[in-house]
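2024-03-11 09:14:02 DEBUG pipeline.ingest accepted 1 chain
2024-03-11 09:14:02 DEBUG pipeline.ingest length=164
2024-03-11 09:14:03 DEBUG pipeline.predict start
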Amino acid sequence: LHDACWTAEPYFELVEIVLKHDRRLINITDCRGSLPLAYVNKKHWKYWVEFLRKKKDEFWPRRDVKADGEEPKPELVLKEPHSKSVPIPSKPASLDMCRLISMGKISPEEAFQLSEEYRMKYRDQVGEPVQQTIVDNTGCSASKPAIVASGNNGNSNRRFSLHG
């Protein structure tokens, strides 16, 4: 949710998907101690207030704790940190190809059917270079520094991060 709040323009469709999965994610701090809404650009605050007011009854309905009891903890909170690791992909892909997969424009299965050379060299229509930087975030419970790749095609900013 932090990344969904840290966008050039509000993307409420994504925020809604995340909150439908677990509305309590809005209360989770990151390694810097920041809540997701701390990443919202100040010029978009009024849009966020409007969105949250419109959705408050859906995501935070009134509850009677005496009648309903305490809300249970999310399932993943009960698991040990780093107990559900994501495997390293056996077939690498370019960042633009990863972007297509993450946006649902192509399935991972479809991407894996492409040749490795094509996956590694694929670029979007703009064909701009993507810059990589290493960010030391090991204090954020990450085992390795993050690789942050970014680019700007003149119409939108793009940022990807891969954590170790």
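2024-03-11 09:14:41 DEBUG pipeline.report The radius of gyration is 19 Å.
2024-03-11 09:14:41 DEBUG pipeline.predict end
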